[in-house]
Amino acid sequence: MQTDTFKISALSPHLFWDVDISKLSLHDNKQFIVKRILEYGLLSDWMQLNQYLDINEIADIVSGIKDLDCKSLSFIATLSKRPKEKFLCYTTQQSTAQHWNF
Question: What are the backbone angles phi and psi of residue 76, rounded to the nearest 5°?
Answer without folding.
Answer: -75, -35
